[in-house]
Amino acid sequence: AQSVTQLDSQVPVFEEAPVELRCNYSSSVSVYLFWYVQYPNQGLQLLLKYLSGSTLVESINGFEAEFNKSQTSFHLRKPSVHISDTAEYFCAVSVNTQGGSEKLVFGKGTKLTVNP
Amino acid sequence: DVKVTQSSRYLVKRTGEKVFLECVQDMDHENMFWYRQDPGLGLRLIYFSYDVKMKEKGDIPEGYSVSREKKERFSLILESASTNQTSMYLCASSLFGSEAEAFFGQGTRLTVV
After folding, report:
1. CATH code for the part of the protein at A4-115
2. Element at A45 (helix H, strand E)
3. Do B105 and A43 lie within an 8 Å CB cutoff?
4. CA nearest A94 in B: which residue?
5. How many separate domains does chain B show?
């Protein structure tokens, strides 16, 4: 079965420092990968996704993630974080179901705390 | 502006009660999902539906059932609430297709006492 491993449950960093949130997935024939972000007391929202093509994908707020097929990884990076980036980040992979539909399988999440 | 609306943000129920959590989406999405979120465990899929009256079990369906009588509405039912069902419940919807983005509601924090 497809699975997602987020290697760090908590990542504390100082403002303006770079950050990397790690994500590994179990391999499959085709892979669709996602990063979602959950700000305090809110639902999840899509940050970025990899479907095909360029292995580097970017979000509008400065995050990027690189799909690495040989390492089965999809790490999320930002060169300089802000206080407002404090949130929980979830990596997810889309998998097909027995009924012919599809569902998202999530990692356990990484809490990013940006300190002044 | 796309929207997934969960009927309650906070809910307190007694052990043994039958509990209904309601979710409505206004995007005409085929897929709808119920997840449970617990600290350190991430999001775990309870049930999902890919069409009206169609459903599939997720990873942790025990103690739950669902209903989808209309395309826009997906209900999660706790037949007899127990304290170990105290959790944050998240509803989501998406179009068909593995590449489709899921849109989430704000969540319902359920406490069973």
Report:
1. 2.60.40.10
2. strand A44-50
3. yes
4. B98
5. 1
